[in-house]
Amino acid sequence: MTSTDQQPLGSPFSATSTAQDVTADHDLSGTSAVVTGGYSGLGLETTRALAAAGAEVIVPARRPDIAREVLADVEGCEVIPMDLADLGSVRAAAARIGESLNKIDLLMAVAGVMATPERHVGPGWESQLAANHFGHFTLTCELYPLMAAAGSARVVVNSSAGHTLTDIRWHDPHFRTGYDKWLAYGQAKTANALFTVHLDALGRGDGVRAFALHPGKIITGLQREMALQEQIDRGWVDEHGNVIGVGFKTPAQGAATGLWAATSPLLDGLGGLYLEDCDIAGVSAPETPMDDGGVRAYAIDRDSAARLWELSVAATGSTVIA
């Protein structure tokens, strides 16, 4: 994959398309999907849309009791416990998934955290990088044999326009020298994008293709650790928490690009790409404002993707074994 591959395809869908629009003509009977964060926000919309189209869906959840309550009316959906910030929990969840499924057609990495207070987990990892990237990296590696068994599988990872805030801080990825919650978020989202670039390079021979995406600006539980006043100051919501920001999507619209990545025949034979608004995104110049869209060249750089992969293997002890 090169920057020249980052060209829109002319998708029939757009920024205003919803999850239901994207999946309306798809019969996913016989499809097995795993959706992290599949019980709230964009993940819930994703789970509901996949299940309505006939897919069997497993939702690993940090709060399994709440997830089961929320998903009680969704047929063909199973909830299992998993905490992305705890790799032991991730591996236990992957083992349980392996007991339930003999293949995985779709792995939707929707769960995430944003702009959290400084925390370190595990052996001292910065918590946003740990939950958003290391957790999904480990889950993907553990489930890879099931995706290879499918013969044709897609891994879809929610990145964000927030990746424009920073490249990987190779000199200090865990913020030992001072914490900035937004740079930590931006680094984690860049990691999400780079992860799919190298995963796709490794997996395409087994039919495993990977995509990263920006879902758009949406107010969901992702903002739960941000003070209301900060969201007001940013122009996102009013004093009552109502969304007033320009260009914000509904959760159903926010889930559309991930579902398009999972199901669109236009993406057959492609991978390692960054998507937005139900199409392939163009490459943005370094000075381009975040809200103008596109992907920074550093977030799709193959050498950086390989470097991050090696860093992640060394950190987690996980690797892809078909």
Blueprint of the fold:
Blueprint: H1 19-23, E1 32-36, H2 41-52, E2 56-61, H3 64-70, E3 77-81, H4 87-100, E4 106-109, E5 120-121, E6 125-126, H5 127-150, E7 153-158, H6 181-203, E8 208-214, H7 228-233, H8 251-254, H9 256-263, E9 273-276, E10 279-280, E11 283-284, E12 295-296, H10 302-316
Give a summary of the structure in a few sentences:
It is built from 10 helices and 12 strands.
Structural class: alpha/beta
Average pLDDT confidence is 93
Which strand order does the major sheet show?
Answer: 3-2-1-4-7-8-9-10
Cα distance spanning the termini:
22 Å
Beta fraction of the residues?
A: 5-15%
Number of strands: 12
Low-confidence stretches: none
What is the highest CATH level, the class? Answer: Alpha Beta
CATH topology: Rossmann fold
Q: Give, in order, the helices and strands.
A: HEHEHEHEEEHEHEHHHEEEEH
Fourth-tier CATH superfamily name = NAD(P)-binding Rossmann-like Domain
CATH architectural group? 3-Layer(aba) Sandwich
Give the fraction of residues assigned to helices. Answer: 25-40%
* Radius of gyration, whole Å: 18 Å
